[in-house]
DNA sequence: CAGTATCCGTATAGATACTG
DNA sequence: CAGTATCTATACGGATACTG
């Protein structure tokens, strides 16, 4: 969890380099901070949508019909607060508001998309594992 | 978010094409499925730990002191159910149980680690954006 | 159009006590 | 040692109604 975290894929002899849980100090842990944000029910979906192009509030509502107005507002505000998306108000009559992804948002979306690809590619394996476990928990 | 979703990996330039929200069918959405699992408070932490080497239950408890016994058990079972980790019981006296990462778990950990690296590298930017927003919400 | 405000049910997680 | 069982607090998310 430290900055020196290395992806060690082969557990040969233990390099035993600590995951450094000593200063995992939640609330300050950037990883949990990120995960808990994108772990929200709608965050990833909105990031995916806005990665394509900017959208207005009402457009987003129509594109993600299952979301309630409340959750759309809240999720957008959270994403904006963290700097992933920007909100621009056009003083039209009636007012319109546009949301667009920021550079920071795009930089997040790059590794995030790789994770999403993994999910797409491997969800069958996961479902299989799950079915097997539910049948006979080892 | 459907099975036909194609996530474009271009790390450079024009971000992304279709997301295909038309038939996003939650409950079957592999992405939400994954995100909601690793979105749990302890999943990522345990995956990181077990990516290093196998650990026994008690060792995990000591390495992640904040976790309750209940949540440790539950999170480990969930991760096992999805096939990310394996559980092996040694009929010693008293019994000992070892948890280790599976191949599927390692394959997940690869893209996941990239996301974690992003979090480490950019959490200052996020914190800054957040502070600015809290001071004067645009 | 793009939000707020309010209410309420459910899911998630912690504390504590007990067990094969 | 490695868990279960129970109870409880809170966070998350949905529905509905109202507004600049």
Fraction of residues in helix of chain A: 40-55%
Which percent band covers the strand fraction of chain A? Answer: 5-15%
CATH topology of the domain at 37-121 in chain A, what is it called? Answer: Arc Repressor Mutant, subunit A
Uncertain regions of chain A: pLDDT < 50 for 5+ in a row?
1-24
Q: What is the arithmetic mean of pLDDT of chain A?
A: 82
Outline the biggest β-sheet of chain A: 3 strands, antiparallel
Radius of gyration of chain A: 19 Å
Number of strands of chain A: 3
Principal-axes shape call of chain A? elongated
Query: Most extensive interface, residues per chain?
Result: A-B, 69 and 73 residues
Instruction: Supply the CATH architecture of the domain at 37-121 in chain A.
Output: Orthogonal Bundle
**Straight-line distance between termini of chain A:** 30 Å
**Structural class of the helices, strands and pairings of chain A?**
mainly alpha
Largest sheet, spatial ordering of strands of chain A: 1-3-2
Walk me through this protein's architecture.
With 138 residues, chain A is mainly alpha-helical. Chain A has a domain at 37-121: Winged helix-like DNA-binding domain superfamily/Winged helix DNA-binding domain (Arc Repressor Mutant, subunit A). The first copy, chain A, contains 5 helices and 3 strands; from the N terminus they run ααβααββα. Chain A has helices at residues 30-38, 43-52, 57-63, 69-81, 103-135, and strands at 55-56, 85-90, 96-101. Chain A has a 3-stranded antiparallel beta sheet. In chain A, β2 and β3 form a beta hairpin. The longest helix of chain A has 33 residues, at 103-135. Chain A starts with 29 loop residues before the first helix and ends with a helix. Residues 1-24 of chain A have low confidence and may be disordered. Chain A binds a DNA duplex (20 and 20 nucleotides) through α3 and α4. Chains A, B: Pfam families: HxlR. Chains A, B: InterPro entries: HTH_HxlR (IPR002577), WH-like_DNA-bd_sf (IPR036388), WH_DNA-bd_sf (IPR036390).
């Amino acid at each position: 969890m430290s900055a020196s975290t290395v992806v060690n894929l082969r557990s040969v002899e233990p390099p035993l380099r600590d995951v450094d849980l000593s200063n995992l100090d939640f609330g300050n842990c950037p990883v949990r901070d990120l995960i808990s944000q994108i772990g929200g029910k709608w965050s990833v979906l909105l990031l995916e949508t806005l990665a394509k192009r900017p959208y207005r509030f009402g457009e987003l509502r129509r594109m993600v019909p299952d979301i309630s107005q409340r959750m759309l507002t809240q999720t957008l505000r959270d994403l904006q607060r963290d700097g992933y998306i920007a909100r621009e108000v056009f003083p039209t009559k009636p007012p319109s508001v546009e949301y667009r992804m920021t550079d920071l948002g795009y930089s997040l979306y790059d590794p995030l998309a790789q994770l999403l690809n993994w999910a797409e590619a491997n969800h069958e394996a996961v479902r299989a594992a799950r079915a097997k476990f539910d049948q006979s928990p080892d």
